[in-house]
Amino acid sequence: MPARALGDLRVLDLCGPIGWYATKLLADLGADVLRIEPPSGDPARQLGPVADGESLRYCFFNTSKRARTLDLQTPDGQATLWQLACEADALVTSQPLPFSYDAIAREHPALVWTAITPFGLSGPHAHWRATDLIGVAAGGLLNLAGVPASPPSHPPSEFAFFQAGLLGAVGTLLALRERQHSGRGQLVEVSLQEALLNALENTLGFWDLMGIARCRLGTKSFSGQTSVYRCADGWVVGWLGRRWEPFVEWLASEGLLPEHWRAPEWSDPDYRLQHLDEIDTVMHQLIARLDRATLVAESQRRRIATGAVVDIPTLFADPQLIARDYWVEVEHPDGRVVRYPGAPYKLSRTPWQIHRPAPRHGEHDGAGWCAPPHPAATTHERPEASPPRGGAGHRLYLADRRSSRRPGAR
């Protein structure tokens, strides 16, 4: 078996949906991720869609992890959580815990504590709850999605949660990287709202520098040079960019080139921007007569960026994905072999890999860590008493001098 990129890391997972992807990324890179769930079972196990009695969402987001049940409402469960945290390299959470970061940092200063929350740990909205759709809305992205005359359109899948999870994994790894020099961990904050703001690209600059508020444009891009078109057997995305001359040659070969487009001014990109509707009409005429495969092949041959709008069945048969061994087959405990999406990145020496399917309820109860302790980590005797419970909500993540004692302290 090849070496694992994060095979020496211990990660404690106490995330809800907003942080699932963060710990999945770490687990599939080899980190020993121990997920904590209540005795009644992780509620995510019941989330649809369900196939053969298993939640597809739970199976996807919990590959390569182990699971242990703890009752965090009891002193014994709280003390066990404290002990596991004192032996971990990182703790990733999206929920209030029985102890604060400050409390455990005094006992285990090398711990990296990552908090992935809807609006961060401070500010007037820090205690607000949010779904993925609320995150997309609060981050400004929902306002840009859809057709101008219609209500905003919800992006497919849980885009906001994926974005927050990705940044949560990156933030955790950056803090662990810095720990190699300082020997100390730190608190890493990821705000769902702020994660979405970072996905708006130049939208914020348009407003801040030019006073232009971007709006919903439907299938068109803000520049107007990219759009979605119907072809003979489906849909494609077309982009002219700076490839005007090859586009003109193609139109001429198809007998679709307007004669006045041969005038010199049409070679000027700024002039063409004033005539986008006319260009769009001709684009529709060209694309409508061709099927997707022919259209994409010919446009790519001419170095014009065009791509097919691919449906899910086509993705599973995509020759590019098959050639790169993208799909991964994982055997489940009942003997079924299930295809999973593959590596989001490829590492040549320490590859991404699904090491095991999502854990069954209580599968690793009583288990400790598999990965060896990191040199920076410290181990403490398990306290007999439970950690004190602090205030509600996000304050449990922050410095709370009244409730930042070690479990069992008086």
**Distance between the terminal alpha carbons, to the nearest Å?**
49 Å
Runs in which pLDDT lies below 50 for 5 or more consecutive residues are 378-386, 388-410
User: What overall form do the CA principal axes indicate?
Assistant: elongated
**Helical residue percent band:** 25-40%
Beta content: 5-15%
The rounded Rg comes to 26 Å
Largest sheet: 6 strands, parallel
What is the strand arrangement across the widest sheet? 5-2-1-6-7-8
- Element order: H for helix, E for strand: EHEEEHEHEHEHHEHHEEHHHHEHHEE
Distinct helical segment count: 14
Number of strands: 13
Give the rounded overall mean pLDDT. Answer: 83
The chain-level structural class is: alpha/beta
Structure description:
It is a single chain. The protein is α/β, with parallel strands linked by helices and about 400 residues long. The chain contains 14 helices and 13 strands. Strands 5-2-1-6-7-8 form a 6-stranded parallel β-sheet. A hairpin with a 5-residue loop joins strand 12 (about 330) and strand 13 (about 335-340). Helix 1 packs across helix 6 (about 160-180). It is elongated, with a radius of gyration of 26 Å. The protein starts with 9 loop residues before the first strand and ends in a 70-residue tail after the last strand.
